[in-house]
Write a structure and sequence with these properties.
The protein has 438 residues and is of the alpha/beta class. It folds into 2 domains: 96 residues, Urease, subunit C, domain 1; 306 residues, TIM Barrel. Strands 1, 2, 3, 4, 5, 16, 17 and 18 form an 8-stranded mixed sheet that branches. Strands 6-7-8-9 form a 4-stranded parallel sheet. Helix 4 crosses helix 7, helix 7 runs parallel beside helix 8 and helix 8 packs parallel to helix 11. The radius of gyration is 22 Å and the shape is globular. The two termini are 31 Å apart. The relative contact order is 0.16.
């Protein structure tokens, strides 16, 4: 007896054809139950027309999309597991509709880079969330890591995240090493010497009586890295674009034929820097929230394709990390895996800045293209007959409050806390078989 899964009344996003079709989706379950292959995509597939047992799911007009891929997740394991373990990070990713994440690690005195990479390499391969790993390019003494040793382990890209260096020669060497090995370099644009002791955007810093971060902390780093990228011939991905000038620099670089991609995160197209007055430490991010003109420039960059992807910049901290801390000495960062899609629906799709197809490209298709430049081949068959796809069943209309209960660990440090967002995955499938969201 054959077993099937029938999803009726769906709107199926077919990214290769750049279209959304109103159709039913029929999947044939493998004999071992571990996967299911698309048997048919038709305008109407009656249950009684299927020759076998059928598990029926009514999509109620909701979207079937490819699973999402994220370009920026900070892992706290090994080390600070009280903030979020790898298991809880994977749970957060599933809840957000992700099947692939690009991971970063904050250097510590406890573990060397090689120890961290060895730990990650020894992890069993997950079926629900594929994890790709980066390695910081500079050691504490400012010297370049051994790229061959790094790439021999599970790292797929070098990055300056958490180890920003103002030594342009070392940055050039790291980007040249990436080019030599056909890997994309991941840049977090930050001039360390200009960022010292800065807390929030300089526009609001005087009113908060804290030290400000000038936009040029980001913009100089973006400009310099683009020139180095052109010089050494590497692929460059710029993470967390947040200012109008950075958007313009990336736009102009693309027009000039420089091999650059860029992402941003929902806070930078949802909030301006005045939000810090209301949210305090929950809105302390790096880069910081910017002025309204910057927010609108980021939205324009998303709409016209200058910004390729939306990433979570998921940086978990536990409540105890904020206890007895002022805005100045509280940590930077916010969790985001559970809220990226909804925040993007709320701030971009529902306001008419982008289409549904563009949204799916920003959170799924484009991140996968960027990951391919790092050598990551994701397990992502298209939603097509004969394939075993990973996909989400997504509601664009469902509203939900952002509370601590939404998050999958002790990390609740979200700038969206207390808001009501719209749009979320209701079911998620791996190789055609449904897996729990949480």
């Amino acid at each position: 007896m054959n077993h099937y899964i029938l999803i009726q009344n769906a709107r199926i996003v077919q990214t290769a054809q750049k279209r959304i079709v109103d159709a039913d989706l029929l999947l044939k379950v493998a004999p071992d139950g571990g996967s299911a292959t698309v048997a048919a995509i038709e305008p109407r597939i009656p249950k009684d027309s299927v020759n076998g047992t059928v598990k029926l799911l009514n999509a109620r007009g909701n979207l079937i999309t490819p699973c999402f891929a994220d370009l920026s997740v900070t892992l706290r394991e090994p080390g600070s597991m009280y903030k979020q373990s790898i298991e809880k990070t994977a749970e957060a990713a599933r809840a957000g509709g992700y099947d692939t994440i690009l991971s970063f690690f904050e250097p510590s005195d406890t573990f060397s880079l090689q120890e961290v990479l060895s730990y990650w390499q020894a992890l069993p391969k997950r079926k629900d969330v594929e994890m790709a790993f980066t390695a910081y390019a500079f050691l504490k003494d400012g010297s370049l890591v051994d790229p061959d040793a790094v790439f021999a382990q599970p790292a797929v890209a070098l990055t300056n995240r958490y180890v920003s260096s103002d030594n342009r020669a070392i940055l050039q060497a790291a980007m040249a090493a990436s080019a030599l090995r056909d890997r994309t370099f991941v840049l977090y644009p930050r001039v360390a010497s200009l960022a010292r002791e800065g807390v929030v955007n300089r526009h609001v810093a005087p009113s908060l009586r804290v030290k400000g971060l000038s936009p040029i902390v980001e913009e100089i780093a973006v400009a310099e890295s683009l020139m180095i990228c052109e010089d050494v011939g590497c692929r460059l991905h710029i993470a967390g674009v947040s200012t109008a000038k950075s958007v313009k620099l990336v736009r102009d670089a693309k027009k000039a034929g420089i091999a650059v991609t860029a992402d941003t995160a929902p806070p930078y197209f949802t909030f301006h820097d005045g939000e810090v007055f209301f949210r305090g430490k929950e809105a302390k991010l790096f880069p910081p929230l910017r002025e309204e003109a910057d927010r609108m420039a980021v939205i324009e960059g998303i709409a016209d394709g200058t910004i390729d992807a939306i990433a979570s910049h998921h940086t978990p901290h536990a409540a105890r990390d904020y206890q007895r801390k002022t805005l100045t000495d509280a940590p930077f960062g916010g969790v985001g895996l559970e809220t990226v899609f909804a925040a993007s629906v709320e701030a971009l799709l529902s306001r008419g800045y982008i289409s549904t197809l563009r949204l799916v490209d920003l959170v799924s298709t484009a991140p996968r293209r960027i990951l391919q430049g790092m050598g990551v081949v994701t397990d992502a068959d298209p939603i097509a007959v004969g394939k075993t796809p990973n996909f989400n069943l997504v509601s664009l209309d469902k509203k939900f409050p952002v509370t601590e209960a939404l998050f999958c660990s002790r990390a609740h440090n979200s700038p969206f806390m207390g808001l009501t967002l719209q749009g979320m995955p209701e079911h998620t499938f791996r190789r055609g078989i449904e897996v729990p969201l949480t």
